[in-house]
């Protein structure tokens, strides 16, 4: 039997934020239970694992989708299911063979658990692991809990970084993966489709990378105003849903002062938005889709073909967290500007309602939890 070292200062029971196939949302007790966390017994940590008190968790669009729709593609909620995968907290307990983490270390949690045996894992593209267990993707419970057990190797030290910024490293990792694979570089003309959290973080990354001009689009004027505050030199365009993709592309080109984008970073996954991007980029350009969409969609094939446009996609991220931590710690990217609302974990239902309501003005909603009374 393994032994653990723990901090004996916790008193609140563990709770999680659940949804189910009936699209209900509620907060109730979860594992590991309080006695296990306090004593390090009952659910002894596996080798290489630690216990973390979660302090901040961001609500992702996928969390809202699993709640409202019950599925994203083949990933279906079939039972009571804990949401959340954007989290940071403090180490409460470590298995004896964990040497790089100590009690009290502040960490951001990378939520994917991989097999380390398949080709994708062995070649460094572990986001494509054939046996991936991604926390919050059914049937694997997520991180929206007060305490979790997790492999230490996927708990990244964040030093004095705020827990909120630590939680935001996950969506920043999504944006960084898109930046790397799309090849955005200094002076590139870039179109960003979607001014939600991923689109806005992508905007901050493009600004830091020296892309110009930058145009960002959305159907919501409030989000475009938010984008303009984040990056004053970016041009904004409110998509006219009554216009065809070619006509929206004409307006996007006008916003960019006639400079066609070399790269479009599509952050919505919406079919019409992907089409807008395809009609906007220059000959030989690239449309890089970061957003998650419906299982099947139509694209303007001949536009892609006759303009030699590359259509490329992204699935999560790999090897991004150390870079994300450096960018935030050195002040290259200020992700704290994305947080608009904060709720205690007991008020998680209200937090989700706020995040899912476009009229609320929410960009990134944070759920916070305290381990002490």
Description:
A hairpin with a 5-residue loop joins strand 2 and strand 3. The relative contact order is 0.15. The chain has 11 helices and 21 strands.
Notable features of this structure?
373 residues; 11 helices; 8-stranded mixed sheet; alpha/beta; single chain
Quick overview of this protein structure:
With 373 residues, the chain is α/β, with parallel strands linked by helices. The chain has helices at 34-39, 61-68, 119-122, 163-182, 197-209, 221-230, 245-255, 271-280, 301-306, 321-329, 348-355, and strands at 5-6, 15-19, 25-29, 49-58, 71-72, 75-76, 81-82, 86-94, 106-109, 112-113, 133-134, 147-151, 155-157, 190-193, 214-218, 235-238, 263-266, 286-289, 310-313, 339-344, 364-368.
Terminal-residue CA separation: 31 Å
Average pLDDT for all residues = 94
Largest sheet: 8 strands, mixed
Molecular shape? globular
Give the count of helical stretches: 11
Could you give the count of β-strands?
21
Fraction in beta strands: 15-25%
Radius of gyration: 21 Å
Low-confidence stretches: 1-6
Q: What class do helices, strands and sheet pairing give?
A: alpha/beta
Query: Helix share of residues?
Result: 25-40%
In terms of topology, how is this protein built?
Elements: E1 5-6, E2 15-19, E3 25-29, H1 34-39, E4 49-58, H2 61-68, E5 71-72, E6 75-76, E7 81-82, E8 86-94, E9 106-109, E10 112-113, H3 119-122, E11 133-134, E12 147-151, E13 155-157, H4 163-182, E14 190-193, H5 197-209, E15 214-218, H6 221-230, E16 235-238, H7 245-255, E17 263-266, H8 271-280, E18 286-289, H9 301-306, E19 310-313, H10 321-329, E20 339-344, H11 348-355, E21 364-368
Parallel strand pairs: 14-15, 14-17, 15-16, 17-18, 18-19, 20-21
Antiparallel strand pairs: 1-8, 2-3, 2-7, 4-8, 4-12, 4-21, 5-6, 8-9, 9-13, 10-11
């Amino acid at each position: 039997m393994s032994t653990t070292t723990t901090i004996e200062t916790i008193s609140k029971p563990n709770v999680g934020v659940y949804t189910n196939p009936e699209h209900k949302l509620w907060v109730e007790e979860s594992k590991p239970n309080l006695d296990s966390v306090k004593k390090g017994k009952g659910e002894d940590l596996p080798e290489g694992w630690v216990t973390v008190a979660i302090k901040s968790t961001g609500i992702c669009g996928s969390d809202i989708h699993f709640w409202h729709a019950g599925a994203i593609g083949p990933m279906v909620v079939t039972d009571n299911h804990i949401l959340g995968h954007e989290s940071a907290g403090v180490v409460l307990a470590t298995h004896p063979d964990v040497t790089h983490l100590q009690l009290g270390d502040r960490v951001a949690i990378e939520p994917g658990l991989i097999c380390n045996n398949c080709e994708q894992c062995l070649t460094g593209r572990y986001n494509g692991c054939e046996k991936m267990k991604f926390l919050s993707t059914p049937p694997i419970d997520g991180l929206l809990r007060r305490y979790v057990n997790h492999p230490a190797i996927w708990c990244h030290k964040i030093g004095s970084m705020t827990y909120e910024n630590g939680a935001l490293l996950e969506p920043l990792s999504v944006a960084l993966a898109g930046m790397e694979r799309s090849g955005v570089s200094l002076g590139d003309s870039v179109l960003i489709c979607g001014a939600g959290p991923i689109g806005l973080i992508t905007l901050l990354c493009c600004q830091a990378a020296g892309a110009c001009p930058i145009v960002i689009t959305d159907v919501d004027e409030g989000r475009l105003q938010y984008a303009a505050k984040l990056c004053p030199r970016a041009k904004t365009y409110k998509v006219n849903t009554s216009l065809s993709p070619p006509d929206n592309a004409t307006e996007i080109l006008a916003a960019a002062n006639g400079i066609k984008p070399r790269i479009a970073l599509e952050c919505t996954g919406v079919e019409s938005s992907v089409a807008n991007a395809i009609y906007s980029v220059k000959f030989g350009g690239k449309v890089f889709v970061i957003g998650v969409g419906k299982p099947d969609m139509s694209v303007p094939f001949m536009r892609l073909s006759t303009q030699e446009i590359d259509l490329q996609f992204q699935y999560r991220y790999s090897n991004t967290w150390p870079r994300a931590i450096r960018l935030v710690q050195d002040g290259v990217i200020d992700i704290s500007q994305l947080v608009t609302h904060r709720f205690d974990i007991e008020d998680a239902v209200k937090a989700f309602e706020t995040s899912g309501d476009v009229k609320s003005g929410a960009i990134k909603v944070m759920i916070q939890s305290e381990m002490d009374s």
